[in-house]
Amino acid sequence: MKIFIKSLILTFFLAAASSQVKAQDYAYIQIAHNVADSTLDTLDLYINGVVLDSNVVYHSATGMFSYRTDTSLSIGIAYKHSDGNPTFITTDTFNAFGNSSEYHRYVFIISGVNGSNFAPNPDGLHDSIRVIEIADVDSAVDDTTNLVMRFFQGVTDLPAIDIKDLNSGTQYFNNMVYGSSAPVDSFRLRHTVYEFQVTDHNTLQNYGTFYADLSGLAGQSVIMLSSGFYNQQANDSGPAFGLFVLEQSGAVLTLPLETAGFQLLHNSADTSIDSVDVYINKLPIFKSLAFRNATPAFLFNAHSASYIDIAHKNSSSPSQAFWSDTITFPRDTFFVATISGLLNPAGYASNPQGVSTAFQVLLKTPAEFTASAQSNFDFFMINGVTDAPPLNLVPTGGPLLLSNVEYAEQTNYVSLPSEFYTMNVQDTAGNTLVSGFANFLSFPGQSGVLLTSGFLYPDSNNNGPAMGLYMVPITGGPFIPLFNATGVNDISTNVALHIFPNPAANQLHIEFTLPGAETVSLQLTDINGNVVIRVLNSTVLSGTQNITADLSNLSEGMYFSRLTTSSGTVNSRFAVVR
Question: What is the mean pLDDT of the segment spanning 123-129?
Answer without folding.
Answer: 96
